[in-house]
Amino acid sequence: MDQEAYNWISRRAHALWQGEGCPHGRDRDHWSQAVAEWGTLGQGYSAQTIETTVKKVLVVDDEPLIRFAAVDALEAEGFDVLEAGSADEALVILQSNEIDAVFTDVNMPGSTDGLGLVSRVRAQFPRTRVIVTSGHVRLGAFDLASGVSFISKPYAHDALIGMLRAHVDRPGNR
């Protein structure tokens, strides 16, 4: 599966999950439905467009140079960016700010890691877009919840920006 298909399916599965009221335990169903929709798009299927404008992004990475580079790249593209060096710090920031998207590393010190942060964000802030990154593990579609995207390190900042700006619609529309 190419990156465009994976990202579209991920965002569509998240939209389906939200549309059903954020139920627990249905991620595989939503993913399967999104895969089926992706497969029929080339045959005239018109998917509902779900546009979500991402303005405020929280970047979470314990490696300062990587975090600073991501923050600088996103700010240069006009995003309002907050940063955290751990999942614990990110949770404090999330409680006091309206965040449109969280971009988090997986492996971080503290009481929880990036995947624990993803679970908390999904439970407490279901409309917040989540993108996960790692240079140590590669996560697939069934390793992450519906609507959570993955980009491996090292990543191109343009790819991250594209993921944040993307919306759910027919493939090829950007």
What this model shows, in words?
This protein has 174 residues and is α/β, with parallel strands linked by helices. 43% of the residues lie in helices and 15% in strands. The protein has six helices and five strands. The chain has helices at 3-19, 27-41, 64-76, 87-96, 114-124, 157-165; strands spanning 56-60, 80-84, 101-105, 129-134, 148-152. The chain has a five-stranded parallel sheet with strand order 2-1-3-4-5, sandwiched between helices. β1 (56-60), α3 (64-76) and β2 (80-84) form a beta-alpha-beta unit. α1 packs across α2 (27-41) and α4 runs parallel beside α5 (114-124). The chain starts with a helix and ends in a 9-residue tail after the last helix. Mean pLDDT is 81; it is low at 42-51 and 167-174.
Outline of this structure?
The protein is of the alpha/beta class and 174 residues long. It has helices at 3-19, 27-41, 64-76, 87-96, 114-124, 157-165, and strands spanning 56-60, 80-84, 101-105, 129-134, 148-152.
What labels would you give this structure?
174 residues, 15% strand, globular
Secondary structure topology:
Elements: H1 3-19, H2 27-41, E1 56-60, H3 64-76, E2 80-84, H4 87-96, E3 101-105, H5 114-124, E4 129-134, E5 148-152, H6 157-165
Parallel strand pairs: 1-2, 1-3, 3-4, 4-5
